[in-house]
Specification:
alpha+beta, 8-stranded antiparallel β-barrel, about 120 residues, about 20% helix, Lipocalin
Length: about 120
């Protein structure tokens, strides 16, 4: 019986670890932390907090939506707290930071690239 309990515990822990990875669990690159505005629409913002939480919307300080985020290498993972019908909950982006600009390119929608400027 003890072996069964240990085996089940190991399986539960392994599945839990996989779940965190799938949901974007990981590290938060400190270079991403802060508020960023779209270069072509400065009233739209993304805020990445050091604890892995974040928000984005049309008016700084008033979020249209919240999310959790993490990075791994040059990958930015955003897990939206709420999504509309047909929208992506777990977004995957390739990101880079250069000269005060954050460039994100969707790994799920071809050609979707945003450049955000540090606020």
């Amino acid at each position: 019986m003890r072996k069964i309990i240990i085996a089940v515990s190991i399986i539960v822990l392994a599945v839990g670890a996989l779940g965190l990875t799938a949901c974007g669990g990981g590290d938060q690159d400190p270079a991403v932390v802060g508020t960023w505005e779209w270069d072509f629409f400065p009233d739209h913002f993304y805020t990445f907090n050091a604890d892995g939480s974040g928000s984005r919307g049309g008016v700084p300080g008033i979020a249209d939506e919240t999310f959790t985020w993490s990075t791994s290498g040059d990958r930015l993972n955003i897990r939206r707290d709420t999504v509309g019908s047909g929208e992506i909950r777990n977004e995957r982006w390739t990101y880079s930071i250069s000269g005060g600009s954050l460039t994100i390119e969707s790994q799920q929608e071809a050609g979707l690239i945003f450049v955000l400027d540090r606020r």
